[in-house]
C-alpha cells in the first residue's frame, strides 16, 4: 500500500485527506443496504472533526458567526421540548421527542464539520476535482436508485440495522423509514396507485432534493474539460435521469430545475457566452420535443392537474407560523408537534376512505417551516441570513464552480419551502459553500481576466 506525506505525518494512501468523504459517497449504496444512509453523515463527520481538532487557526467563511449563533439558538430550543403548541397535541414530551431533537441537532453539527473541513483543507490535499467527482457520482447513484423505483417500485427489504435493532426501536415511526430500504413510495396522487422513486433515500421528496443538488456538480465533473471517458456517458445519464424525475411527481423539483436553467441562461448571457447560451437553448428545445412526444409528458400534465396537497400544505404552513407567533416567537418549540384534529375529517386523522385526512406534524413539509417552528423567528432569521450571504458572496463570480454552487443554493432555497432537507441535501450545500469559500481570490481574478 502506498503512502503519502501530510506535514510530518506519513499517512496510508487509503486514509489520505478527505477519505471519509470518499468512503461516504462511493460506498453509499452499501450504506443504503445496511440501513445507515441517514446516519452515515454523522458517523463520517467524527473522523473529520478529529482531524480538525488537531489543527490550529481554523479558517471560516464570512458570516460563519451567524451560523454559530443559529447552532446555539437551536440547542437552546431543547428547553422548549416539553412545552405545548397552541394547536398541537398536548403532552408527549418524553424520550421520543428528545431523541428526534438529538438526531436533528447531530445533523446540524455534522454538516458544520463538513463545511469547516472543506474550507480548511487546501487544494493540494483535497482537490476540488475529487470532491466534484464524488458529488457527480452521487448523481449517478441517485439516478440509478430512481430508475430502480420506476422499474421495480414494490422492492423493499429489511436492512441489516433493522434486523439487529430491537423491534420496538426498528418499528418506530420516525426511525423505520430511515432504516428500511425501499425502491419507491406507492401513493395515489393521480387517481391511481403510482410508485414514486425514493432509493437510495427515505422519501420521494428527499430523492427530488438530492437529484437537483447533485446535478450541477455532475454537469461540472462529467462535462468539464478533464472529464475524460465520463463526457461520453454524461448525456445518456442525464437523459435516463429524466425518467425518474417525471415519475417522482415532484413539482418542487420541476420548478427548481426550471428556475436553475433560467439562472444559468441569464449568467451566460451576462458573461457574453453566446455560444454556450445557444447550446443551452437548443438542448432545452430538443429535450422538450422528445419529452412531449413520449408518455412522460402525459404524466406531468396529469400531475399538474392533480394539486391534491396544495390546500393541506398551505394550511399546515399557516398553522405552523401562527403557533410560533402566538406560542413561542423567539425560541420556537425545539422540535415538531403533532396536530390536534384534522383539516378534512371531523373525527381527525387518516381513515381508509380518506388517507389524506391525516395531517403531518407542525414544522414539517418544508425545511423552512421546520426551522421556524423549532427555532422560532430569531432562529429562522439567522438560518436564512447565513445562506443568503453565502449566495451573494459568489453570485457574480464567473468561475464554473461558483456558478454551480450558486445554482445548488438557488435550488435549495426554493425547495426549503416544500422539502424537509435536514439530511443529505444540507451536507451537499455545506460542501458547496466550503468549496466556493476556499477558492483563492487570485483564481477568481484570473478567470475574470480570461
UniProtKB/TrEMBL annotation:
Checking InterPro entries in the record gives: WaaL-like
Query: TM segments?
Result: 30-52, 64-83, 95-119, 131-152, 198-222, 229-247, 253-270, 277-297, 368-387, 399-418
Per UniProt, which keywords does this protein have? Membrane, Transmembrane, Transmembrane helix
Keyword Zinc tagged: no
The answer, when asked if Transmembrane is one of the entry's keywords, is yes
Name under which the protein is recorded: O-antigen ligase like membrane protein
The organism is Actinopolymorpha rutila
Q: What is the lineage of its organism?
A: Bacteria, Bacillati, Actinomycetota, Actinomycetes, Propionibacteriales
